[in-house]
Queue: 2 jobs
Job 1
Amino acid sequence: MSYFITVGVFTAITTLGVLGTFVLTGLTGLFSLGQAAFMGLGAYVAALAVVTFHVPFPLALVLAVVVAVGVGYVIGFTTLKIRQDFFALATFGFGEAVRAVMNESVKWTGGAMGFAGVPRLTTPLLALVSLVAGIWLVRNVRGSKFGRDCLAVRTDELAAEVMGINAFDHKLKVFLLGAGLSAFAGALMAFFTTYVEPAMFGWMQSAVWIIMVFFGGRDSLTGAIVGAASLSALPEILRFASQWRVAIYTLIILLIINFRPAGLFGRWELSFETLGLKRSGPGPGRRLPGHAAEKGGAGADE
Amino acid sequence: MGDSFWSVVVQQIVNGVSLGAVYALIAVGFALVFNVLKFSNFSHGGVLAISAYVGYFAALKLHLSLIPVLLVGTLAGGLIACGVEFVAFRSIRKKRGQLVYFFVTSVTMLMLLEQVLVIFFGASFFTYPRLISLTTLTIGQVSISVLYVLMMVASAIAFGVLAWALRFTRVGIAIRAASNDLITTNLMGVNVDFIVLATFFVSGLLAGLSGVLLGMSYTLYPQIGQLVVKGFIASVLGGLGSLVGAALGALALGVVEVLLISVMGSGLSPAVIFAMMVIFLLVRPQGFAGVSFQEKA
Amino acid sequence: MRKSLALFLILAMLAPVAVLAAGCSGGSNEILIGNIQDLSGPNKAFGLAMTNAAEMYKEKLNAAGGINGKKVRIISYDTKSEVQEAINAYQRLVDQDKVLAVLGPPIANMGIALAPIAEGKKVPIVGLFMDEKATTNSKTGKPYTYMFLGQNSSGAQARAIAAYAINDLKLKKFAILYNQQNAYSVSLAEPFIAYVTANGGTIVDKETFMTADKDYKAQLTKIRQAKPEAIYMPNYPQEIPLTLQQAYDLGIKATILGDNSYIPFATSSNTDPKASEGVYFPYGVDPSDAKLKQFSDEYLAKFGYAAIAQSYSGWDAFGALIEAIKRSYAASKKVTPDMVTTEMNKTKDFPGYQGSLTISPDTHRPVGLPMIILQMKGGKPTTLAKVIPPAEK
């Protein structure tokens, strides 16, 4: 398999995982420092199912999602009741706890040595189809009444509750959707890299995903996808720059967030309309109040 | 001369408190910025790490002794934090950006500062020159290292000065006012830019001090700033509105970590700490200090 | 304005791809060798040590005419210490750059992850991944065809110090303190425990910690309570001075046994000699060996910082690889990755800094390569003995 296809598959899988962060942060405004742990959960569950218990691969993928959503339900049910900052902390604790369990159960997971020898069953086609399906799912959820209700909760939880929206219930559902997406991505990854280890799923990974979402814009699915895809491919592209690449990466992000806080794409979506068949771009009136007062373009600030 | 059960327990509590003192220094600086700008400032860890290296080079190249090294590192932390505020947070604040942007930027800053250290110093290993000789105070069967005593004394002095400054100086009073309501403080004629800068400066001083102390008692490596998560946990447990709460949360975290390790080993203790944390937050969402602040007007 | 900015940024990011795609393939009068190392992450010090050693070797080789008139070129890729990056780098080296062989990282989990992939790509990796799982397929018990280890495995190193402690120091009761999240530490701890218990010793306490932990006094207090005669602390460089100092702080008098990362940290003048006094540890090379002096002086002058263990063993690993390529040329005037693999199996008595390096075709690891046992005295390591690591049993 050629090198560029490999990078492409990695990018597709990462993007799918980041979609989990995107739905959570984009629809509820919550951010989870344990999102990568769901990816890890999916990866380990699927790998264990196939390698140790000889479960067929497609069933293992389903199992990964089911387990992650189950665990997500317990975590979400307890932690979504507490305040936003606490939620970040609670998910952080959850992520570290998951890693601790992976490290501790050496007999099953190989502990710190990692879980090697997973068969390579994720084909480029499977990764691509999964990504497209994931994007389609997220797009539909965002466009549905449920999605718009979530945005109402994000903007003003109290007002939304007054309008009869059950904020907790909405947050929990979105949280589970995010967990499922990330876990599925994790399962695909395990069967592509053929190796997983707990160190891959730390809180910094979750933080990087949040950064990717904000890079493209958390109100734009197109932006989140482009952000995730380009930022996960970026280190690979910058490989020639070796040690400078992380610095360059972080600098680009700082510039974007400082000068275009709504992300590269703001609320812009790729669609037939925006491709020029019908002109209705992002008018200023469509922005959320929080995004006000940006002057557009780099260097326009002070 | 065997260790009796109680001497082991006392020793472990001493271990826990000395660990908690380290966390406290980080947590209070972390909580200070949270107090005013209401976001979790992870770049605090980056400032801490760079100051630790500044202190190291001051000790190595300028042959400074203990107190000057502490002062240089502390001051460096303050200045770096001002720089961070200026580069990373000012324009977001001007645009009234949402809290999440601050959060994202602060994590990015942590990565950037860490990477700067990797680029310039990652090729070699560093340990601080021995500024104080390794000595231990032993009382019965309980020992504590002089370095930790020094850390606790330094933290206590720093907290004392901070408490005094917040209560009695004009800037301190303005910072406290700003932590109640930044916009109204502005309307009352206080220069908010200056107050925010001052907050970052003070928080940076604490980061610098903790950086040098951590560097001295631990080894120096670019990722040392990631210890900021301990400050994060402690200040959330303490109740994010309160500096005293952050310090208490840190001490509690130190003692709980040590006791868990001694009872069940380090392996699963993160899982237990997580469970305890969630239960605690559910039972007492306002944290130790009991200061509850409103998220939205 | 905003869309054009977005477009510009994306183009700016993609531009280097075109540049890379354009100018990469090696000329026919060059021999390309890949190098996968951490050049910007937490283990940059190890990565640079190996890269520098390989570059030094290459310069000498090319100055002397290269191999069969062909110059050797090393293509180095950074891993940031992330396994996924190492996998990407290996695939890129094989598919894009078409290298003949790869100098691998001194990181255990990367070796473990790369081993099954190399079976498919069929380009050999010679590295310092000490964990035996990187060279032996744990399912079949047979060696991975394309993986070769250029220094003693972690099992051999752990057994070397364990045997010395039991036979020479006459110690019987051991405690152990190690980083459970670190594959290197785990890969040393397990064979140590196995050897001690199989040879009449006992493990009275086993304590672990996590990478994020910097305070080990809770664990050490428990160890103190268990009253071992010796404590084995197989940890990473950053952790070593901490474990030593905190053990000293708690007044622990037991003999401390270390690993091959104790140089340079335990020996640094900044680590209090009181804390490191009397510590025994195994090392790949003998610091009192005059041959090393010349290398380390040259290294220091060239790179501005001191050589560490991985510089010497990296030199040996690279050297053995170059010799395999040379033998392949001598035999059939050409060379392929498979031929290099075959020749690597025949590595015999390569004169390295660690000793004479012979690779066993049954394990793809060195056989009969000595370990040097050192002891810290007054802050300086002194050479005590040269031991051949006992075989596993």
Job 2
Amino acid sequence: MPAVTDAAAPRTTLSLQARIALAIGAVVAIGGILVLIAALAYGRHAAREAFDRLLVGAASDIAESITIRDGVPIVDMPVSAFELLALAPRDRIDYRVVGRGGETLTGSDSTPRPDDALPISFYGGTFGAEPARYVAVVRRFAERGYTGPVEVIVGHTLHARRALAFDIAQNAVVVLGAAGVVIAVFAWLAVLSALRPLGRIGDALARRTPADLTPLAEPAPREVAALRDALNDFIARLQRQLNANRDLIADTAHQLRTPLAAIRVQLDAVKHEDDPAQQAALLDRARDRLVALSRLLDQLLSQGLVVHRGDAARKERLDLRDVALEIYEASELEIAASHHAITLDLPETEVAVTADRLSLTEAGKNLLGNGIRHGVPPIVFGVSGTPQEARLWVRDAGGGPDDAVLSRMGSRFLNGASAGAGGLGLAIAHAVATNHDGQLAPRRGDAGFEIAMVLPRETPP
Amino acid sequence: MILRLALCLGFVAGTGATAQELSERLGPPDAAQEMRVRSTTDLAVLRPVLESFLDARPDTAIVYEQWLSNNLYRRSLADCEQGPPGADLVISSAVHQLVEFVNRACAASYVSEETASLPAALSWRDELWGITREPAVIVYNRELVPTQDVPRSRFDLLDILRNRSERYAGRVATYDIEASGLGFLFAYADSLEATTFGGLLESFGRTGAVATCCSAEIMNGVLSGRYLIGYNILGSYAFDLAEENPQLGIVAPADYTLILARGAVIPRNAENAALAAGLVDYMLSPAGTDGLRDAHLLTDLDGLIDKGAAAEAFGASQLRPIELSPKLLVASDRQKRSLFNDLWRNAFPGQ
């Protein structure tokens, strides 16, 4: 087994603010890179579109200016074409007009020609040592003496395109950067305001006196409210535990005081009695009292345990028949001592409940013990069930306890002298039944008295 | 003056068509560094500016070569494409050729405070800079042309050619656009500015006007009385000559006056590009522009009015600077030139 570090302080992980800052930073950074790439691509595309139109405009201008004179195409180069091209002020201009035979009519002989003879084709090339963009526009003639195409090629270098693309991308990045800053600031403010209730709850807890177990009343948004409500639940459980402990101590003191006083009186009487026979009788009575007292003590502890477990114990799925058998086995000594025959009545099929095994067993032992001690044989102990409920019951032929006892079975304080351990056993069973959303159901009939713990039945899986 | 005339005659005689007209070394003989400037500008005009540039740089010398514009262009292109390093700085009045030169990626880029201060229309790609402002003017002989005949605009010129053709026929001269790059540029710019150009060509043809090679020859002809009027003459030369010859009248046409900014480029394979850049900066600096103004190479609107070439009412909107932009590439287009030359030859048959 790995060594367990003793009393390790709970780990504090990265703050939520830092996490959100990281997340937003990552989003803005990744988004920024994507937008930068997109902006560059868009800028290049837009610049290409814009300046390609310029090229086509210039080439069309030149194509329009061609006339056929004596079977020869004559280009009266229009200034407007170059005015268009001069809109890219720093770019060098290359042009060429090619006749149907591939001969250069005017312009530069070294201007590259397109691969395909489309009406309009765009292509890249080099002009001198620089990359350039070209367009070729074909004008077809059907004139006397000249039938065929004249190809006008216009190109220019890429300075203006690059400048425009860069400009567009730069603007996009500036806008994105501003948006990123705004997003980050707003996210930061949102996180600060979202986390403020946590701080308030923490402060409220820190300010409390140790005895203050009232629920927290700080307002909180839904997410934080879950934490607050869980804390309040926890505080309520703590409050109940504390109450249970206090009650146990009070009960125990209350229940023990009377029998102890009685025993002391008897022992005092023994001291003042000279007759040995009377002395022995008094000692026997004191002993009986002590036996009863020890049983009472057991039950008080048992009640304390049950009440304690009511909140704390984990409930599990149980077969009530198993629980009954366990109770029966745990009570065998008492059964043997009572000389009664106890009949066990269990159904064929499982009777499932969700319950705390220990509480249930304690409660059952108390019910069965009451039956053995106070009941009139025949005594039957059993389990039965309807689709909605499960019953663990004890039946005897007697009349059962007084109505007064039954009516007080839910209350804590029972008169130990009058009701004794029997009433306390009922109180324990009642507490367990209540803890399991059930009830304690006494029934007096012609055949005798039956008391049952009725619990909600778990539906078979 | 005599030298210039002789040079012009020499060209007309057909010698040295592909070589420089003149080469001279300026600066101390033992200068540590030397740059080669090729220019269409007369050395006599530019000399004071170059000398004041060299005064501040005792270790520098300039080899100055004076070329005809078309020859300079051919040579510079050849140097760019295959030749050994040629000029370190090329200055030409035929700026459409320099635009073509830049467009062929033959020029080196250079940026300085001075070049950046040029208006956008007078520089291109930080490779071509307009260093002068020279109007295209009409010159006339004050003694032979009566005041009422002095053409204040192209319309006046058209009118006297139509109404007084018996006096002016054959006695109006202008550049031969096939021989002179600058002449072609002015004629081309005229053709873009107004429809008067067509009328002028027609009148020139009808009255037998003369097209010849050089500003010097035209102006000397005007002074001697052989011609009465010269059209589209570079103002810088005219103002220079008028200082000594008061009978030379100068008019900036009131309909519009073309303003040429002589261009400078540093060839990309220049060996002394830094020196050339220094000279460009100098010519654009206050000291340089003062020198250029004294040499009549920087004539603005106020200068035109001061010199009496333009009336007081002359406005800046009447000045049409020739933009240094890729639009000038049209002027270098093969078919455009050939169409334009055809048009010209129809007007000047047999010359």
